[in-house]
Amino acid sequence: MKFPFIAAALLVAAPALAADLAPDMELGKTEDAVRSALTALGYDVRKIEEEDGEIEAYVVKDGEMAEVYVDPATGKVSKVKG
Amino acid sequence: MMSDMPGLNLAEGGRDSARLVRVWDPLVRVIHWSVLLGVLLNAVITDPEGDLHEIVGYAILGLVVLRLVWGFLGVQTARFTAFPPNPRAALAHAGEILRGDRSVHLSHNPLGALMAYNIWATLIVICISGIMMGTVRFFGVEWVEELHELAFNWLMVSVVLHVGGVVLDQRRTGVALVKAMITGIKNIPDGISTK
Question: Predicted ipTM?
Answer without folding.
Answer: 0.71
